[in-house]
Known about the structure:
alpha/beta, about 25% strand, Imm26
Amino acid sequence: xxMSMGDSPMPGxxxxxxxxxxxxxxxxxxxxxxxxxxxIPPTFINRQPWLKGYFENVANVPxxxxxxxVKHCFYDPxxxxxxxxxxxxxxxxxxxxxxxxxxxxxxxxxxLSDALGVARADD
Length: 123
């Protein structure tokens, strides 16, 4: 979901969810995806994975309230605090908790490899 300017690490970035659901088909019923079944925490990323062909849009459906975590949590490594996607400081960690930083397709690849228990790609 696109974040408004000022609420994310970089204007125009995307907050993505990567689900733990497996499918042999590219198209998956969006109702089968659940925000409580994420493979990695919510992640901020730019449009490069789509531009380079690593990511592909397979559907475009309006988000329902139940599609989104009640509250996002990110660790801000510069301020050393937990924050929401709107940079509100949280008193406690809320899982799943990502990093308040712009990720690349490479760092997402590393996170996916770690979550799946496979070796990371070589540099």
